[in-house]
Amino acid sequence: MYMKKLFYLFLIIFLSIGCQNNGEEMNPFLIDYDTPYQIPPFEKIEVSHYEPAFDEGMKQHLSEIEAITKNKEEPTFENTIVQLERTGKLLDKVSSVFFNLLGANTNDQMDELASKISPILSSHYDQISLNQELFKRIKVVHDQRENLDLSVEQMRLLTETYKGFVRSGALLSKNSMEQLKDINKKLSSLSIKFDQNVLKETNDGYSLVIENEEDLDGLPQDIIDQASNLASSIGKEGKWVFKPTRVSMYPFLTYSNKRELREKLYKSYINRADNDNERDNKEIIEETVSLRIQKANLFGFDTYAEYVLENTMAKSTSRVNELLDVVWDPGLKRAKKEVEEMQNLIQKEGGNFELAAWDWWHYSEKIRQLKYDFSEEEIKPYFSEDNVLKGAFDVANKLFGISFNERKDLPVYRDNVRTFEVLDQNDEVMGIFFTDYTVRPNKGGGAWMNSFISQSNFDGKQIPIIANTCNFPPPDKNGISLLSFEQVETLFHEFGHALHGLLSDVEYPSLAGTRVSRDFVELPSQLMENWGRHPEVIKTYAKHYKTGETIPDELLEKISKASTFNQGFATTEYVAASYLDMAWHTIKDPVNDANKFEDSVLDGIGLIPQIETRYRSTYFGHIFAGGYATGYYSYLWTEVLEADAFEPFKDNGLFDKDTADKLRKYIYSSGNSDDLMTQYVRYRGSEPEIGPLLEKRGLDNF
């Protein structure tokens, strides 16, 4: 996922940030970093530095805006649009650190400050986006755009700037502007609270604590060891602990022979923030949706979905629903056949129960072993985290000619964070790449990419500083972390996002890298997964962590044949969540019972009881604590693009230079410097077809 904390990314995209004195010690945000490549000096940054830095950053930002509005000269592209691009650097500086670490390395003090500062920042940005003197200057330039002899990227910057102000309320009446400010402030607070509730429910809520060794029946030794280490870390020596996180729960659901324990752990996961306690999110959801309806109405839209989709490739709810419908029907048919197979196996084994949601991982793994004669535990020894990362680096080198040089002397915010110089073909440093892969309690769930600094060629070349954050298993006593194949795909996915940021080559920072629409941003990431799962590439990095042996061809062939296995489940749980997202944002009136509404939506689409939507509303952070509201469909939308975009490599070779050069130029390096579909057509020659997607998922015959 691009970034689970999309709310924070939204702030980072449009903000800038700074600092002031903290007693005798200078606030590190207020002075130039004395670090290589302007990496934040993490070891010098204290929580106490953030708030004064935010205050000073906002103060400077407003002063910079005032300088533009007080300019007596006629508005021009240079003195208005370009100058606006120069504002807010101090605020960016502190925001990028604070919000990135809030997602990856938080604590109670940071959570408290986030709750305090987020509505203040919301008001700050409203003060700028609703500044009528500023907007008048922007509008004058925009109205003259056809006569200004602008480059393609300059025209894009102008039109995107103007559109951004309009979509932020610049054309509203004064009364509506005041209403919008109040709505935005409330929404920012609700978003932060929602996310904090999910994190606390996950880490501080229910844990499955096993005291009797017999209850570990079926679990592989490495999973048992991880559970023992987790227990020790929270003061439960001699026991085994499993938490409602994917890295802890999925292996238990897959291998445990204790059905009643699988049920307990699974239900604790799907009921997060839905336990009628102080961390319950149902009322937050209801208020959020109500405020979003009000916001859409202010802009003249009947629904929030219409407001959001106006600024995407999809453009309309009908196009989104058409896409979901095309995939839903064959996906559901395939899922029902998968249920039949597993139910038959249950009966064959003498089980006297119907397959339930908490049984799916367990019996689908058994079916896979029967059909393809291999298990996850058989292949995991070939996928050490370090080797998979080297494999991703090798793909980037073969495609784009870049290389990665690890540095152990650069500033980091945790001991197990790794840093790499990214080198171009001339061995010049073109970016810095951080990896933060290991699961820990103060890290948000899921996986995402962040920018500490975005690329630009503006006022001097600025290299990007990019981070990938994941939740992979902690290393064993020998420092080895073994990944499931799903985690391998996640690493390549997030690395694709990183490449989008690292390869960016645009003039203006607000158009750089991943600053594109939600239904395009997943293209570079999902596209990279194709190399990660291709047999030819797997053989280059799948080395046994003990012997160094390359993964056997026989096992590789089994993995390849199983590539569409369980796609009914994968498709159905994802599309169900996409329908749920669309349902929340196509209603015209508030909801007063979140669970009842959710049930009616899922019943209405015919979701079978053996499958739960990938995210229930109370922990659907993408849409209630991030930037994917009316945007969760975008993974599927960009999968259509991605499946189509990979076709030339299937035809011409995995690392065909001409194709790779076009891919870099029009997809990975161009950012938001031109219309996104135009860029795609320049790469591919035409708009995408859905056929490659259905074939890839094994749904073309359903």
List the topology elements.
Layout: H1 6-14, H2 47-69, H3 77-85, H4 89-104, H5 108-129, H6 132-143, H7 152-167, H8 174-204, E1 208-210, H9 221-233, E2 240-242, H10 246-255, H11 259-270, H12 282-298, H13 304-309, H14 317-348, H15 360-372, H16 376-379, H17 385-400, E3 403-407, E4 418-423, E5 429-438, E6 448-453, E7 465-472, H18 485-502, H19 518-521, H20 523-533, H21 535-541, H22 553-561, H23 567-586, H24 594-605, H25 621-624, H26 634-652, H27 657-668, H28 676-684, H29 691-696
Helix pairs in contact: 1-4, 2-3, 2-4, 2-5, 5-8, 6-7, 8-12, 10-15, 14-15, 14-23, 17-18, 17-21, 18-20, 20-26, 23-24, 27-28
Helix content: 55-70%
Tally of DSSP β-strands: 7
Distance between the ends: 28 Å
- On the 0 to 100 scale, the average pLDDT is 94
Proportion in β-strands? 5-15%
Structural Rg? 25 Å
What ranges have pLDDT less than 50 throughout 5 or more consecutive residues? Answer: 1-24
| Biggest beta-sheet profile | 5 strands, mixed
Count of individual helical segments: 29
**Please, how many domains?**
4
The rough form would be described as globular
CATH architecture of the largest domain: Orthogonal Bundle
Strand order of the largest sheet: 3-4-5-7-6
Looking at CATH, which topology of the largest domain would you report? Neurolysin, domain 3
CATH class assignment of the largest domain: Mainly Alpha
Secondary-structure content class: mainly alpha
